[in-house]
Design goal:
The protein has 305 residues and is α/β, with parallel strands linked by helices. Helix content is 33%, strand content 22%. The strands form two sheets. The chain has a seven-stranded mixed sheet. The two termini are 18 Å apart.
């Protein structure tokens, strides 16, 4: 099985006619993704041929969903237009919106995330609403369920299907971990992005992998800054019975230096790699000191299951 994305997913691409949208749509189609159309208001009603497939360009996400039955959107829209594109997807209530775009202003991400929550479902009185549209990203590589579907920019030929669930803040470390564990394979791999405001979190992915009967073990990659990994550790301790292996990027980061991810902001001891490692280990997570050691720990666990 897989989480959030499977062989039945019908994908539209917002920004399909742009350079990045066209390039990665070609790769997604080659990976077996069922792309059913694109969205660009200025080119509505036209047809583009990508990877040998003729795809209709619709004016809005709502129209695309109505005509194709799409349930996933992948956003390749420039940063200054991305907020409106994501809000359009939220208003259309598409179940999954994968926001690849890098460089979206934080206040724009905060705005569309608040909009998603405001339009969400109140499952518990007084608790935050659950968005009807799951957002992955922004500034992320997307999500892949190998052999089934690929929504984003993760290279599809790194690893095949298997029984590891992977959730990562880092795109490049997503790729490295998939390659190092390619002999075992993955149910789903998700790059959630490293910006300060993101949609799907480590905890969301952990919960879904815990519920997926064909995910046997989980690999979680975090990085310095914020407290997402500490909160994930608390969740693991209380709710996850499957083995979890962790890695925290940033042990060698120079103190006080701004790092590449906008969310990698350390305040005092909070948010340091060591603090995150300690929290995860206290929750029973085995934490590797390097990506390769993390992969080796995962292989040991899988071999013992």
């Amino acid at each position: 099985m897989s989480i959030f994305l499977n062989e039945n997913s019908k994908v539209i691409v917002q920004g399909i006619t742009g350079g990045e949208g066209t390039k990665h749509s070609t790769k997604m189609l080659a990976a077996g993704t069922n792309i059913v159309g694109g969205v660009n208001a200025r080119k509505a009603g036209t047809t583009v041929t990508i990877g040998g497939k003729d795809l209709t360009v619709f004016g809005t996400v709502e129209e695309a969903m109505k005509e194709t039955g799409a349930d996933v959107s992948v956003v390749f829209v420039p940063p200054k237009f991305a907020k409106d594109a994501v809000i359009e997807a939220i208003d259309a209530e598409i179940p999954l919106c994968v926001v690849i775009t890098e460089g979206i202003p934080v206040h724009d991400s905060a705005y569309f995330w608040a909009h998603a929550c405001a339009k969400g479902t109140e499952t518990t009185p007084g608790a935050p609403r659950t968005p009807r549209t799951r957002i992955i990203g922004p500034n992320c590589p997307g999500i892949i369920s190998p052999g089934k579907s690929n929504a984003g920019i993760i290279p599809a030929d790194i690893a095949g299907a298997g029984k590891i669930g992977l959730v990562s803040k880092s795109g490049t470390l997503t790729y490295q971990m998939m390659y190092e564990l390619r002999e075992i394979g993955f149910s789903t791999a998700i790059g959630i992005g490293g910006d300060p405001v993101i949609g799907t979190t480590h905890i969301d992915a952990l919960e879904a992998f815990q519920a997926d009967p064909e995910t046997a073990a989980i690999v979680m990659i975090g990085e310095i800054g914020g407290d997402a990994e500490e909160r994930a550790a608390d969740f693991i301790k209380a709710n996850v019975t499957k083995p979890v292996v962790g890695y925290v990027a940033g042990f060698t980061a120079p103190e006080g230096k701004t790092m590449g991810h906008a969310g990698a902001i350390v305040s005092g001891s909070a948010g340091t790699a060591q603090a995150k490692k300690d929290a995860l280990e206290a929750a029973g997570v085995k934490v590797g000191k390097t990506p390769s050691e993390t992969a080796a720990l995962t292989k040991e666990i899988i071999a013992g299951l």
